[in-house]
Request: fold
Amino acid sequence: MKKLFVTLVILSAMNTKVFSQPAWIEYPIGYPLNSSVKNFYFINSQTGILCGSGGILARTTNGGVNWAKIPNNRYNKYYAISFINNNTGWISGSNYNNYELIKKTTDAGQTWDSLFFDANGSMNDMMFLDNNTGYAAGIYMKKTTNGGLNWFVIDPTSPYQYFHIYFINTMTGWVTKSHYDQFYNVYVSKLQKTTNGGQNWIIQIYDSGTVNKQIEYIKFFDANTGYMSTASNGFRKSTNGGENWVTIYNNAASKFSFININTGWMIYGSGVKRTTNGGYNWQTETITQYLSIFEGLYFINELTGWIGGQQSSSAKLYKTTNGGITSVTSISSEIPAAYSLRQNYPNPFNPTTRIRYALPKAGVVRLAVYDVMGREVETLVNEKQSAGTYEATFDGSRFASGVYFYRLTAEGYGETRKMLLIR
Reply:
């Protein structure tokens, strides 16, 4: 009797029409041509700041649904955002004369005061550790000890340009820099580390060659564990403070956002990738139809995040509330004789499993996962697909161990199967 009751509950829930959203939804921000979203920061799930080229500087108080423009020169370019608490933060970039530019807010981004101009090009990256101490990367590596009012050079090496910085405290941090050596026709990239607030720097990586180009992005979680992405040499990990690096993912990698040491996202080319095991494996969501250039990425938890960039010379912003990944692969374009839904493999599984299904004709397809009470916990597919055989990946890393059901519906066809997650 109990088994019959649970089955009826599940079937009842599955017959209820649920209209789920796609992985990424566009939220208009209303900026003109020749603009691009470069960066984000969210103070909490509702209040956030975005910035970019073409004078983009805007604030949301409803989770990114609407953005209020903050008045400033449309020729300004902003690349970096750094907050030390809910109210106090800085943005950096360059103004219309290509001078270094820093602005500060003390009211959660509602208003911004200009602090610093310098005729030395753009500030590519910037990070504050407290009300007074901050670091900035551009033509030179600079430091402030009075909240950004004044800056002094702490590593005047030429002809390198500094691109990305990350500090775990006021004393210990890393910076990446690179330049193109015209005489030898090679790119030269370096990773440097300081443990005394920038007074001295240790070179940890020195790469010279046409393959490496520049280090794209870097982040450390503590004094030992850090990640690095490179344009050609993949995604790397260090467990000894940057002394040694191991390539754990061989494909090209770009900017990334991690919410903990295992779970993160990375933008690349025409898509987004997600890892749940510290970068050793990545799931891919190809979204070429959305953006032609990816530049900004920010997640606040396992489900909610934003990507930004440019499409047809206009700034674009997209948000996800389901982790941004619906991994579905076309296995074969050969037309099957009938609909079918196969048993997931592996089963039992931990934490991912693959579900293969066949479509004899084109139509709207829905593949969803339910718990034992019939509640939908994940939508894997909800779109029109051509005839063929497909394989979807279900990631159960966010769910408890137990029995789950997955159901395929398409053009009058429906079938349900059971699977077991063991954590």
